[in-house]
Amino acid sequence: MKEHVLIVEDDEQQRSFLALHLENADYKISSAATGEEALSIYAREKIDLILLDLTLPDLDGLEILEQIRRESKVPILILTARKSQMDKLIGLGFGASAYLAKPVDPKEFILRVGKLLDPNSLEETEPAMLF
User: Fold this and answer.
1) CA-CA distances (angstroms) from residue 103 to 18, 48, 84, 108?
2) What is the model's pLDDT at position 1?
3) Mapping DSSP to helix (H, G, I), strand (E, B) and coil, where does residue 123 land?
4) Deepest in the core among 33, 40, 72, 119, taking most CB within 10 A?
């Protein structure tokens, strides 16, 4: 069974870019342009990973993260244009599993998604990839 990834991104171009790379890597995709839409999809579907932008038109991504963390440990990868160390620390402090600043490299993005969905899958090869 394919892992199900929820993309929460208000920029249609970014959503399409992320969906294309995830579909090519054989993931099932759902997407939301707003926080309310994301929470609605999350409530009715089994989601294995959430890709979460922080800047959305209705809710701040951190609000969404906080709501989901009250009931679930589903992996959440923050994907945002906010690049400061403080934003990263706040996101991780709110319970994000990982944090990537946009623009993202497609190969790194897919590797991170795979690692979040199966933390043991890259354990042996990861150190060699860092050098």
Assistant:
1) 11, 23, 14, 11
2) 66
3) coil
4) 33
Of the candidates 96, 4, 9, which has an alpha carbon nearest to the alpha carbon of residue 48? 4
Q: What is the pLDDT of residue 87?
A: 87
Domain tally for the chain?
A: 1
Token reading at 76: 């959440």
Which pLDDT score is estimated for 130?
40
CATH code assigned at 96: 3.40.50.2300
Query: Which domain covers residue 87, as residue numbers?
Result: 4-130
Ranges of H-type helices in 1-131? 12-24, 35-44, 61-69, 85-93, 106-117, 126-130
* CA dist., res. 72 & res. 39, Å (int): 12
C-alpha pair distances (Å), 117 with each of 84, 125, 131: 26, 16, 23
Q: What's the predicted TM-score (pTM) here? A: 0.88
What tokens were used for 119? 């933390």
